[in-house]
Design brief:
The protein is of the alpha+beta class and 350 residues long. It has 17 helices and 5 strands.
């Protein structure tokens, strides 16, 4: 019997969603543990470290793809996706995660995930059911990316789902089989060892399979009132996400497009097909201004130039659009409380 889903109607997404920048924190923890610094992981993505600290900041689809391409290149491990999914405990998802944890049964939790998967950090859509003597949770509708990157995303999300369902059950999620929509990269036994069960490859959709008796077993953290509250909050959050444009992220991307040649506000407005007045108003609605975004971009680039290169200060100032090194030094001291030379010396020593 398939779970009843009619109580929560999902809003369809026709284009890849923009995930919050904080969605990179869990995989960054793994990559840092493997010896790869944050700046190396973010190189070439256009993602600034300051964005990771801003709960309102979101990633473009291309930025997220660039990050995971970096992860593949840095590690050289075709199975890195499995490791990158391990830190995604339910609490990482905020309201969505707490709604899962407080559900009455696994069936209810999975049905909720199907309807509100937009609140995860996945590009897949979810499905679940009970048929053929198995309970199953499926991932389908893959994002429009190259096969190599698809496999990383799929491994990450299957691993993350096992982590989440284990937390919900209060025990290791006992799988009977796993089906994956890729060929296993010649490392099929490693997948079987990882999931602890039979793993079948080149299957669509990808599924986690388990004993269906688990579906209706009461969950240890079940709390009907809390669950109802979080489900309501998630409905409101999805409505809010649908209405948000994240205009500041579009402006930030244009400022990062050609470092050293920062467009003036009129040029940015023209690129976004709005008037300067509308641009200012929309940024104000998102709690920032064009000047603040420009300074944020300059500050982040300045830190990267100071720490990742040996460029002289005059050249860095030029790359940041300053006519004189003294103007750059004054601005950097205002941003950080340190001179550029002092900042470089201190962090290089560290």
């Amino acid at each position: 019997m398939k779970p009843s889903l009619q109580s929560d109607t999902a809003l369809p997404i026709h284009a890849p969603p923009q995930h919050p920048a904080k969605s990179l924190e869990p995989p960054l923890e793994i990559l840092e543990g493997l010896g790869h610094g944050r700046r190396s992981c973010l190189r070439g993505t256009g993602i600034m470290l300051s964005q990771l600290e801003n709960p309102q900041s979101r990633l473009t689809f291309q930025q997220e793809l660039a990050f995971y391409r970096n992860a593949l290149e840095l590690t050289g491990d075709s199975l890195i996706g499995l490791k990158l999914g391990e830190p995604f405990i339910p609490q990482r998802y905020g309201l969505f995660g707490y709604a899962l944890l407080s559900a009455s049964t696994l069936r209810r939790a999975m049905a909720f995930a199907v309807n509100f998967g937009q609140l995860t950090f996945s590009f897949f859509t979810f499905d679940c059911g009970d048929s053929g003597g198995h309970g199953w949770f499926a991932m389908k509708d893959p994002p429009p990316v190259e096969q190599e990157l698809h496999d990383v995303y799929l491994d990450r999300d299957m691993s993350a789902a096992v982590v989440a369902f284990s937390a919900i059950l209060g025990q290791s999620f006992p799988l009977t089989a796993v089906e994956l929509a890729h060929d296993g990269h010649g490392r099929q036994q490693e997948y079987r060892d990882y999931f602890g069960c039979d793993v079948r490859f080149t299957c669509y959709p990808s599924r986690l399979m388990f004993n269906p008796e688990l579906l209706d077993r009461p969950l240890p953290q079940s709390d009907p009132d809390t669950s109802h509250y979080f489900r309501q909050q998630c409905r409101m959050l999805i409505t809010k996400l649908k209405s948000q444009s994240h205009f500041a992220d579009d402006v930030r991307m244009l400022l990062l497009a050609q470092p050293g040649q920062f467009p003036i506000i009129d040029q940015v407005a023209a690129k976004l097909h709005v008037s300067v007045r509308t641009l200012r108003r929309r940024l104000d609605e998102e709690g920032c201004s064009y000047r603040e975004l420009l300074e944020e971009v300059r500050f982040q680039l300045a830190k990267e130039y100071l720490l990742d290169t040996r460029l002289p200060l005059a050249e860095i100032a030029d790359l940041l659009g300053y006519t004189e090194a003294g103007n750059f030094s004054h601005a950097f001291r205002r941003w950080s409380g340190h001179s550029p030379r002092g900042f470089r010396k201190t962090h290089a020593a560290g």
